[in-house]
Amino acid sequence: MEVKVIDNQLEKALKVLKRKLAQEGTFKEIKKRRFYEKPSVKKKRKQQEALKRRIKARKRASGR
Questions:
Q1: Is residue 2 part of a domain?
Q2: Do 17 and 3 meet the contact criterion of CB atoms below 8 Å apart?
Q3: 1: pLDDT confidence band, cut at 50, 70 and 90?
Q4: If residue 14 lies in a helix (H) or strand (E), which one and from where to where?
Q5: In this structure, which of 11, 17, 48, 59 has its CB flanked by the most CB atoms within 10 Å?
């Protein structure tokens, strides 16, 4: 990933970099890996995330 600094606008470049990292999910991944997650907890979390995605997709499909 690359962010160009134009006219010494370091703050703006930093803001762009943070936005790109957030969109990629890098911050979420770092936060998730900060502590050990037991396999049973990890499985339960993944199931909850999948359920959220299914509900969201169902709402999107019925809204059309």
A1: no
A2: yes
A3: confident
A4: helix 10-24
A5: 17
pTM of the predicted protein model? 0.57
The parent domain of residue 33 ranges over 10-62
Q: If we measure between CA atoms, which residue out of 5, 23, 1, 22 comes closest to residue 14?
A: 5
- Yes or no: say if 16 and 3 are a contact pair by the CB < 8 Å rule: yes
Q: Classify residue 4: in a domain, yes or no.
A: no
Inside any domain, residue 1 = no
Per-residue pLDDT tens for 40-62?
999 999 999 999 999 999 999 88
Mean pLDDT (whole number) for 15-33: 92
Contact 1, 16 (CB under 8 A): no
